[in-house]
Amino acid sequence: MSEIFDETNMRRVLGEYIPSGEMLLAGIHAISHETKIIGVFGKCVLTENGLIPAENGGVIVVNKEKNSTYDLYIGITQYSLVMAPCERSSYYYRFDDGPDVREENIRMVTSDILLADIGNCFRLADIGNCVIKKGWMGSVKCSLTMKNGSCFKLRFPKLGGLGGGMPHHTEYREAIIARLGRPDV
């Protein structure tokens, strides 16, 4: 559990999902209360562990959900919102292989994608709505909805854990709140 409140560990975990050419500007430990991720993928087939490219493959909509509380890291780069569970986590998956979606919303699969890697990185420009409210004991509640329908109910604790493993928690939390509060920038 103490590894969760370690800034070096957080940077390593989030670093796996940061797009090439971007760097982490701020990252914190947070708590998710609800996660609903939607991904639309084309020219692929579904396997037990994920999606693989297939020239004759169809369009697959992946719905990835978790409705229980869990620890996650959340960070921002210049252009992206990055999230990853602090520990191994299970999700509920639903798949639709006959969707009616607009072509511009389909991400063509060019290499294997693990189900666990879906929904860990979003463009900041794709934030549709963000509601930030004061929470209990100095925490901040954040309800985040993406333009594609993905949504998250998050809580950002006031402190980054005991022991001083996340010395920049307060300043990074404020930077994340400020950036999420103005998604059009």
Pick out its properties.
single chain, 185 residues, mainly beta, twelve-stranded mixed beta sheet
- Structural class by secondary-structure content: mainly beta
Helix content: 10-25%
Average pLDDT, rounded to a whole number, is 92
User: What is the overall shape?
Assistant: globular
Reported for the largest beta sheet, the result is: 12 strands, mixed
Uncertain parts: none
How many strand segments?
A: 12
What is the overall number of helices? 2
User: What portion of residues belong to β-strands?
Assistant: 35-45%
Compute the separation of the termini in Å. 36 Å
What does the radius of gyration come to? 17 Å
Question: What is the element string, with H for helices and E for strands?
Answer: HEEEEEEEEEEEEH
Could you characterize the architecture of this molecule?
- This protein is mainly beta and 185 residues long.
- 11% of the residues lie in helices and 43% in strands.
- The protein contains 2 helices and 12 strands, in the order αββββββββββββα.
- Strands 1, 2, 3, 4, 5, 6, 7, 8, 9, 10, 11 and 12 form a 12-stranded mixed sheet that branches.
- The longest helix is centred in the last third of the chain and has 12 residues, at 169-180.
Summarize the helices and strands and which ones pair or pack:
Blueprint: H1 7-15, E1 26-46, E2 50-53, E3 58-66, E4 70-76, E5 80-85, E6 92-96, E7 107-108, E8 113-114, E9 121-123, E10 127-134, E11 140-146, E12 151-156, H2 169-180
Parallel strand pairs: 1-7
Antiparallel strand pairs: 1-2, 1-3, 1-4, 1-12, 2-8, 3-6, 4-5, 5-9, 10-11, 11-12
